[in-house]
């Protein structure tokens, strides 16, 4: 396993260009299974999760052509519908093959999906929704079985939680289901919108994407399409946190839509981070006075995640590290995953002043002088948060399991070095 060696104390700043949204790329890759025509995706990040999704597709027989950040896929030569067990366990996105494979090819065999160990991630919403569409689901033993039945047609479905992956799975199945499907309590995140835009370009009839009520009129078949993945706002937020924590100035080009920027501005603004946007470029000033903005009456504020447009869970880890460098007290409340906050014991070892109240809540009191330590990256977002902690710490940090960060961030060490960070990879 590789590791990062980070010498802290140097500002991170310069011009930064984000890559495509990881969480949009995975379902958009799976969507190629809905047609025999070529699907070309642009701005695809070169990360481990994408690599594993492409390996799964190639194993099924999909023709994959990759050039830089563009990927062209053709599922015409598909030779099987059962996924490789080992590859399934390397990426959470493997569950996204259930909907398109069952809807268009009749069946799918999928082993338990992998991904980050951040707590239980239910498949119940997938099961209930696909069953309503007439896809029989058997979760009794691996591989999990999904089979299109004679009852396959549109339905009104109330999701029991606004699950992103369940919304995406149901969306990909419903576009080929005869009749009308309505998804209530659907996820609204930008990556769901990216998938919806791709499906419409392929010939799907969809309305309401970006809201919690999506309507789909099934069509007999879909065609090919070309689509560019939108910038990854989680990656953007991670680099903003790195620059603000180290005192650097940052310019970010190729921004996400205005809603995503407002969501981030609301979260970072609580910690005193300010920026301006001029001519499509975000300008983050250097040496910002990081200070927690209290609630009315001087009460301790709370930063909590939730369904879109609340603060994304994937941003909480980097925001928490940034809060260790801000004056004041703030409570972080992670409501979606019970193990997301367990990485904070590494921050305690580095000298952070915080209290983990329970699995979901952490009280941070800043600013703290962090010290370099030998630490381990437990998951993608916590790994990036620990890299940021190491960048603003005194001394040298050694971060084991760099591959965890590689699953969600392309060439993170090289891109940070280009912005002035002292970070290298060691095998």
Brief characterization of the structure:
With 427 residues, the protein is of the alpha+beta class. The protein is built from 14 helices and 23 strands.
Name the descriptors:
427 residues; alpha+beta; UDP-n-acetylglucosamine1-carboxyvinyl-transferase, Chain; 2 domains; 4-stranded mixed β-sheet; globular
Description of the structure:
This protein is α+β, with helices and mostly antiparallel strands and 427 residues long. It folds into two domains: 3-18 and 231-426, UDP-n-acetylglucosamine1-carboxyvinyl-transferase, Chain; 22-228, UDP-n-acetylglucosamine1-carboxyvinyl-transferase, Chain, CATH 3.65.10. The chain has 14 helices and 23 strands. It has a four-stranded mixed sheet with strand order 21-22-1-23. The longest helix is centred in the middle third of the chain and has 14 residues, at 233-246. The chain is globular and about 65 Å long.
CATH-derived architecture of the largest domain: Alpha-beta prism
Task: Give the DSSP E fraction (strand runs of 2 or more residues).
Answer: 15-25%
The counted number of beta strands is 23
Helical segment tally? 14
Instruction: Please give the domain count.
Output: 2
CATH topology of the largest domain: UDP-n-acetylglucosamine1-carboxyvinyl-transferase, Chain
CATH superfamily of the largest domain: Enolpyruvate transferase domain
Report how far the terminal alpha carbons are from each other. 6 Å
| Strand arrangement across the biggest beta sheet | 21-22-1-23
Task: Name the average pLDDT.
Answer: 95
- Class by alpha and beta content: alpha+beta
Poorly predicted residue ranges = none
Give the C-level CATH assignment of the largest domain. Answer: Alpha Beta
